Predict the structure.
Amino acid sequence: MANHRADEKRFLDERGNSGPLAPNGLNPATIMEKPVRERIVDCYFWKDQCFGVNEADIIDRVVDHIHFIGGTYGDAQRPSPFLCLAFKLLQLGPSDEILTEYLEYGGEKFKYLRALACFYIRLTRKAPDVYRLLEPFLEDKRKLKRKTRIGTSLTFMDQFVDDLIVKERVCATTLWKMPKREVLEDLEVLEPRISPLGDIDDLLESDVEEVEMNGQNSDGGESSGAEFVEVTPERNSRDIDGIEKEEDDGAVS
Protein backbone atom coordinates (compact mmCIF):
# COMPACT_ATOMS: atom_id res chain seq x y z
CA MET A 1 0.00 0.00 0.00
CA ALA A 2 1.40 3.37 -1.02
CA ASN A 3 1.98 5.91 1.69
CA HIS A 4 -0.02 9.12 1.52
CA ARG A 5 2.09 12.25 1.56
CA ALA A 6 0.68 15.15 3.51
CA ASP A 7 3.03 17.61 1.84
CA GLU A 8 0.97 19.74 -0.54
CA LYS A 9 4.07 20.62 -2.53
CA ARG A 10 3.65 17.24 -4.21
CA PHE A 11 0.94 18.91 -6.31
CA LEU A 12 3.52 21.36 -7.58
CA ASP A 13 6.05 18.60 -8.31
CA GLU A 14 3.78 16.19 -10.19
CA ARG A 15 1.16 18.30 -11.94
CA GLY A 16 3.84 20.21 -13.84
CA ASN A 17 4.77 17.04 -15.75
CA SER A 18 1.90 14.55 -15.98
CA GLY A 19 -1.24 16.19 -14.53
CA PRO A 20 -4.25 17.09 -16.66
CA LEU A 21 -4.47 20.60 -18.02
CA ALA A 22 -7.23 23.10 -17.36
CA PRO A 23 -9.93 23.55 -20.06
CA ASN A 24 -8.10 26.63 -21.38
CA GLY A 25 -4.92 24.59 -21.85
CA LEU A 26 -2.96 25.99 -18.91
CA ASN A 27 -1.25 23.97 -16.21
CA PRO A 28 -3.22 24.43 -12.96
CA ALA A 29 -0.06 24.08 -10.89
CA THR A 30 1.62 27.04 -12.57
CA ILE A 31 -1.27 29.44 -13.15
CA MET A 32 -0.28 31.35 -10.03
CA GLU A 33 3.21 32.79 -9.75
CA LYS A 34 5.81 30.75 -7.91
CA PRO A 35 6.32 33.20 -4.99
CA VAL A 36 2.55 33.25 -4.39
CA ARG A 37 2.33 29.45 -4.52
CA GLU A 38 5.13 29.11 -2.01
CA ARG A 39 3.48 31.55 0.38
CA ILE A 40 0.21 29.65 0.09
CA VAL A 41 1.57 26.18 0.86
CA ASP A 42 3.60 27.54 3.78
CA CYS A 43 0.82 29.54 5.46
CA TYR A 44 -1.14 28.29 8.47
CA PHE A 45 -4.57 28.51 6.84
CA TRP A 46 -3.51 26.21 4.01
CA LYS A 47 -2.08 23.58 6.36
CA ASP A 48 -4.97 23.78 8.82
CA GLN A 49 -8.04 24.23 6.60
CA CYS A 50 -7.16 23.07 3.09
CA PHE A 51 -5.78 19.56 3.67
CA GLY A 52 -8.11 16.74 2.60
CA VAL A 53 -10.79 19.15 1.36
CA ASN A 54 -13.20 18.22 -1.44
CA GLU A 55 -15.61 20.29 -3.53
CA ALA A 56 -18.37 20.13 -0.91
CA ASP A 57 -16.01 21.15 1.90
CA ILE A 58 -15.07 24.25 -0.08
CA ILE A 59 -18.51 25.71 0.68
CA ASP A 60 -18.02 25.25 4.42
CA ARG A 61 -14.58 26.85 4.28
CA VAL A 62 -15.94 29.83 2.35
CA VAL A 63 -18.83 30.38 4.78
CA ASP A 64 -16.64 30.06 7.88
CA HIS A 65 -13.44 31.77 6.83
CA ILE A 66 -13.79 34.05 3.81
CA HIS A 67 -14.93 37.53 4.78
CA PHE A 68 -13.05 39.49 2.12
CA ILE A 69 -11.51 39.04 -1.30
CA GLY A 70 -7.88 39.66 -2.12
CA GLY A 71 -4.53 38.12 -2.95
CA THR A 72 -1.76 38.84 -0.51
CA TYR A 73 -2.32 41.51 2.13
CA GLY A 74 -0.48 43.32 4.90
CA ASP A 75 3.18 44.22 5.12
CA ALA A 76 4.09 40.53 5.32
CA GLN A 77 2.09 39.81 2.13
CA ARG A 78 0.17 36.97 3.72
CA PRO A 79 -1.98 34.97 1.30
CA SER A 80 -5.67 35.49 1.97
CA PRO A 81 -8.05 32.58 2.63
CA PHE A 82 -9.72 33.56 -0.65
CA LEU A 83 -6.48 32.97 -2.55
CA CYS A 84 -5.76 29.73 -0.68
CA LEU A 85 -9.14 28.25 -1.56
CA ALA A 86 -8.72 29.36 -5.16
CA PHE A 87 -5.45 27.42 -5.26
CA LYS A 88 -7.25 24.45 -3.71
CA LEU A 89 -9.81 24.58 -6.52
CA LEU A 90 -6.93 24.44 -8.98
CA GLN A 91 -5.97 21.19 -7.27
CA LEU A 92 -9.46 19.74 -7.29
CA GLY A 93 -10.50 20.78 -10.78
CA PRO A 94 -14.28 20.87 -10.16
CA SER A 95 -16.65 20.09 -13.02
CA ASP A 96 -18.88 22.61 -14.77
CA GLU A 97 -21.92 21.28 -12.88
CA ILE A 98 -20.27 21.99 -9.53
CA LEU A 99 -19.19 25.45 -10.66
CA THR A 100 -22.76 26.16 -11.74
CA GLU A 101 -23.94 25.30 -8.22
CA TYR A 102 -21.27 27.60 -6.78
CA LEU A 103 -22.44 30.43 -9.01
CA GLU A 104 -26.20 30.02 -8.94
CA TYR A 105 -27.78 28.47 -5.85
CA GLY A 106 -24.79 28.76 -3.54
CA GLY A 107 -23.84 32.16 -4.90
CA GLU A 108 -27.25 33.64 -4.13
CA LYS A 109 -26.81 32.79 -0.45
CA PHE A 110 -23.04 33.26 -0.10
CA LYS A 111 -21.62 36.09 -2.16
CA TYR A 112 -17.99 35.17 -1.50
CA LEU A 113 -18.64 31.68 -2.88
CA ARG A 114 -19.80 33.28 -6.12
CA ALA A 115 -16.76 35.56 -6.16
CA LEU A 116 -14.45 32.56 -5.66
CA ALA A 117 -16.12 30.62 -8.46
CA CYS A 118 -15.87 33.62 -10.81
CA PHE A 119 -12.18 33.96 -10.04
CA TYR A 120 -11.53 30.26 -10.66
CA ILE A 121 -13.49 30.31 -13.93
CA ARG A 122 -11.43 33.27 -15.14
CA LEU A 123 -8.24 31.31 -14.42
CA THR A 124 -9.16 28.01 -16.04
CA ARG A 125 -11.93 28.38 -18.67
CA LYS A 126 -11.79 29.36 -22.32
CA ALA A 127 -12.66 32.91 -23.31
CA PRO A 128 -16.20 32.20 -24.65
CA ASP A 129 -17.06 30.33 -21.45
CA VAL A 130 -15.65 33.13 -19.31
CA TYR A 131 -17.84 35.73 -21.00
CA ARG A 132 -20.90 33.47 -20.98
CA LEU A 133 -20.59 32.50 -17.31
CA LEU A 134 -19.41 35.79 -15.80
CA GLU A 135 -21.40 38.46 -17.65
CA PRO A 136 -24.75 37.65 -15.97
CA PHE A 137 -23.21 38.67 -12.65
CA LEU A 138 -22.47 42.18 -13.86
CA GLU A 139 -25.93 42.88 -12.46
CA ASP A 140 -25.02 41.64 -8.96
CA LYS A 141 -24.74 44.79 -6.83
CA ARG A 142 -23.82 43.20 -3.50
CA LYS A 143 -20.96 44.69 -1.50
CA LEU A 144 -17.61 42.96 -1.09
CA LYS A 145 -14.73 43.74 1.21
CA ARG A 146 -11.29 43.83 -0.39
CA LYS A 147 -7.91 43.65 1.38
CA THR A 148 -4.62 44.66 -0.18
CA ARG A 149 -1.18 45.65 1.04
CA ILE A 150 -2.33 49.22 1.63
CA GLY A 151 -5.48 48.39 3.59
CA THR A 152 -9.14 47.48 3.34
CA SER A 153 -11.58 48.94 0.83
CA LEU A 154 -15.15 48.43 -0.34
CA THR A 155 -16.07 47.11 -3.75
CA PHE A 156 -19.04 45.40 -5.39
CA MET A 157 -19.64 42.08 -7.07
CA ASP A 158 -20.26 43.64 -10.48
CA GLN A 159 -17.04 45.64 -10.19
CA PHE A 160 -15.08 42.53 -9.24
CA VAL A 161 -16.50 40.59 -12.20
CA ASP A 162 -15.71 43.50 -14.51
CA ASP A 163 -12.12 43.52 -13.22
CA LEU A 164 -11.83 39.82 -13.99
CA ILE A 165 -12.94 40.46 -17.57
CA VAL A 166 -10.96 43.59 -18.43
CA LYS A 167 -7.91 43.72 -16.11
CA GLU A 168 -4.65 41.83 -16.45
CA ARG A 169 -3.97 41.22 -12.76
CA VAL A 170 -6.47 40.51 -9.96
CA CYS A 171 -5.89 39.15 -6.45
CA ALA A 172 -2.09 38.86 -6.78
CA THR A 173 -2.55 36.71 -9.90
CA THR A 174 -1.69 37.56 -13.49
CA LEU A 175 -4.65 36.59 -15.64
CA TRP A 176 -4.12 34.99 -19.01
CA LYS A 177 -4.83 37.36 -21.87
CA MET A 178 -8.30 36.83 -23.33
CA PRO A 179 -9.40 38.06 -26.74
CA LYS A 180 -11.82 40.96 -26.59
CA ARG A 181 -15.50 40.31 -26.87
CA GLU A 182 -15.77 42.18 -30.13
CA VAL A 183 -13.25 39.80 -31.72
CA LEU A 184 -15.23 36.75 -30.62
CA GLU A 185 -18.42 38.33 -31.93
CA ASP A 186 -16.80 38.96 -35.32
CA LEU A 187 -15.74 35.30 -35.38
CA GLU A 188 -19.34 34.34 -34.51
CA VAL A 189 -18.16 32.52 -31.41
CA LEU A 190 -20.31 34.71 -29.15
CA GLU A 191 -23.65 36.33 -29.69
CA PRO A 192 -23.73 40.13 -29.25
CA ARG A 193 -24.43 41.03 -25.65
CA ILE A 194 -27.63 42.94 -24.99
CA SER A 195 -27.31 45.43 -22.17
CA PRO A 196 -30.02 45.44 -19.46
CA LEU A 197 -30.60 49.05 -20.53
CA GLY A 198 -31.38 47.96 -24.08
CA ASP A 199 -29.61 48.35 -27.40
CA ILE A 200 -27.04 51.14 -27.15
CA ASP A 201 -27.60 52.26 -30.77
CA ASP A 202 -31.35 52.54 -30.21
CA LEU A 203 -30.79 54.51 -27.01
CA LEU A 204 -28.47 56.95 -28.80
CA GLU A 205 -30.90 57.41 -31.68
CA SER A 206 -33.81 58.05 -29.32
CA ASP A 207 -31.74 60.64 -27.43
CA VAL A 208 -30.88 62.44 -30.69
CA GLU A 209 -34.51 62.45 -31.79
CA GLU A 210 -35.63 63.81 -28.44
CA VAL A 211 -33.08 66.62 -28.60
CA GLU A 212 -34.16 67.53 -32.14
CA MET A 213 -37.85 67.60 -31.16
CA ASN A 214 -37.11 69.83 -28.19
CA GLY A 215 -35.13 72.14 -30.46
CA GLN A 216 -37.96 72.38 -32.95
CA ASN A 217 -40.47 73.18 -30.22
CA SER A 218 -38.32 75.94 -28.82
CA ASP A 219 -37.56 77.36 -32.29
CA GLY A 220 -41.11 77.13 -33.68
CA GLY A 221 -41.16 80.81 -34.80
CA GLU A 222 -38.79 83.74 -35.04
CA SER A 223 -38.60 85.90 -31.99
CA SER A 224 -40.17 89.34 -32.42
CA GLY A 225 -38.55 90.72 -29.30
CA ALA A 226 -41.89 91.09 -27.54
CA GLU A 227 -40.76 88.85 -24.72
CA PHE A 228 -38.14 91.45 -23.75
CA VAL A 229 -40.60 94.44 -23.54
CA GLU A 230 -41.22 95.66 -20.02
CA VAL A 231 -44.83 95.14 -19.05
CA THR A 232 -46.35 97.71 -16.69
CA PRO A 233 -49.17 96.61 -14.45
CA GLU A 234 -52.59 97.84 -15.50
CA ARG A 235 -54.45 100.18 -13.19
CA ASN A 236 -58.14 99.98 -12.71
CA SER A 237 -60.50 102.93 -13.16
CA ARG A 238 -60.77 103.63 -9.43
CA ASP A 239 -57.03 104.15 -9.08
CA ILE A 240 -57.01 106.51 -12.07
CA ASP A 241 -59.96 108.55 -10.74
CA GLY A 242 -58.26 108.86 -7.38
CA ILE A 243 -55.04 110.12 -8.93
CA GLU A 244 -56.88 112.73 -11.08
CA LYS A 245 -58.82 113.98 -8.04
CA GLU A 246 -55.62 114.43 -6.05
CA GLU A 247 -54.08 116.44 -8.95
CA ASP A 248 -57.16 118.73 -9.15
CA ASP A 249 -57.11 119.41 -5.41
CA GLY A 250 -53.44 120.27 -5.62
CA ALA A 251 -54.08 122.72 -8.46
CA VAL A 252 -56.86 124.54 -6.54
CA SER A 253 -54.73 124.94 -3.46
